[in-house]
Amino acid sequence: MIIIGELINASRKAIKAAIEAQDAEAIQKVARDQAEAGADYIDVNAGIFVGQEPQYLKWLVETVQQVTDKPCAIDSPDPKAIEAALAVHRGVPMINSISLEKERYERLLPIVAGTDMKVIALCMSDEGMPQTVEDRMKIADKLVNGLLGKNVKVENIFVDPLVQPVSVNNSFGMEFIHTIETVVKTFEGIHTACGLSNISYGLPARKFMNQTFMVMAIARGLDGAIMNPLDKKMMASIIAAEALAGRDNFCMEYLKAFRAGIFES
Amino acid sequence: MIIIGELINASRKAIKAAIEAQDAEAIQKVARDQAEAGADYIDVNAGIFVGQEPQYLKWLVETVQQVTDKPCAIDSPDPKAIEAALAVHRGVPMINSISLEKERYERLLPIVAGTDMKVIALCMSDEGMPQTVEDRMKIADKLVNGLLGKNVKVENIFVDPLVQPVSVNNSFGMEFIHTIETVVKTFEGIHTACGLSNISYGLPARKFMNQTFMVMAIARGLDGAIMNPLDKKMMASIIAAEALAGRDNFCMEYLKAFRAGIFES
């Protein structure tokens, strides 16, 4: 499982305050905690700072990479902000995210074209939120083929089929999950990644439902997640599901996690 | 989800003692507790009492059905014991289970032939334990077609693909799960049911792993389980997975379970 740690996001109060105060230590603690908990990428988002996003995003990348070797997931739709961040990034970053929304697509495609960067391809277009597997695959086909056509390798693409709440429509969970399966079958070697928490919008016991949905998605081929790696129960669910899905040789990671006490909470 | 409550099994110490003492109250408490917790069938097993199995199985059915309207899952490979139990059973029972082992198959097929009883068809033959999807489907094909040929309706058949431990072979989890999916696609209207706890044999944190595997199997179409309905965390996992799989209109069962406190433990 490729885990994108989502906590360094300026829409969170503490992160907004730390960015405004240029409090590197506060940011670095969150970066280090996520890396130690198993994050493969550290997402950085300064989207709420209109006008200052490029400078803040650059500062976040520098600040994070002072304390961890993990690459960043650069979380912005703005090419200026992304380029400012890329100018200082070490290693191979992830771009979070391109979509089929015309402006976003046209501005971000040249940035990833011909590079080895990882890129999340979000199944969203100007026609609104997709509902069915077919809606999503139409967008995914165009996005993936557009990226391939610009010499982005299939194994660097992470399709995000876009989760919608099961409280709104009973079928939204399975439409999402069947899209994961269809994407994995359609584009050999591709990855999938998404934030899952929208699935439980409007329902109680959201954390439990989110964990359950993660396990269901892994059973159908999900191999990436934008999430809080400090959520021990979610990490436990992922580690158990990976072992059960045959992705953990001799259950070594499962046993390691057990010894570390992750199943106790 | 069709839940077969597994607790009234003479291989459990307290049940063995209750049967020997003909302690109806003790048995009835376990029956009532399981029914109240959501069991659709109450499994009864007196298999350890060689020679006395027919009389004890009959007594178990009578004793259980004095306190609940739920039908029993009659858990025996012995036609004499099954017939003794059927003689007193009210409603439509389940037979747990027929298999492709020659003796078992030939002795049980006439009992279910032409009836409306439910029957679990266990993917086991005299050639040993199946390992791959293909192994299991070979057995399932013969079993299901054998039952259909004797006028057992497809919707009364519950295929059990037989879980084997993921600690023995990394791929055993997915071989099982892909069999569930293949069975459901191959025989329209059929059910699947199984005990899942073998999956975690030889590993720590077994309960958590069993819950996780249940959720993965539901994501692929499992709709029956032989289990302990008093295990609140397992029931919570099932209820959440069913809502996410689109099998719970307006998430009513999920909300009901939340109000009953099932997600709190």
Walkthrough of the structure:
The structure is a homodimer of 265-residue chains. The model of chain A has no long low-confidence stretch (mean pLDDT 96). Chain A is built from 10 helices and 8 strands. Chain A has 265 residues and is α/β, with parallel strands linked by helices. Chain A has an 8-stranded parallel β-sheet.
Q: Which helices and strands appear, and what pairs or packs with what?
A:
The structure is a homodimer of 265-residue chains.
Chain A (H helix, E strand, L loop, with lengths): L1 E4 L7 H8 L3 H14 L3 E4 L8 H13 L6 E4 L3 H10 L5 E6 L2 H11 L5 E5 L10 H17 L7 E4 L11 H15 L4 E2 L13 H14 L4 E4 L4 H13 L7 H8 L6
Parallel strand pairs in A: 1-2, 1-8, 2-3, 3-4, 4-5, 5-6, 6-7
Largest sheet of chain A: 8 strands, parallel
Principal-axes geometry of chain A comes out as globular
| H/E series of chain A | EHHEHEHEHEHEHEHEHH
Oligomer kind: homodimer
Give the strand order, joined by hyphens, for the main sheet of chain A. Answer: 7-6-5-4-3-2-1-8
Quick tags:
homodimer; about 260 residues; alpha/beta; 8-stranded parallel β-sheet; about 10% strand
Give me a quick take on this structure:
The first copy, chain A, has 10 helices and 8 strands. By secondary structure, chain A is of the alpha/beta class.
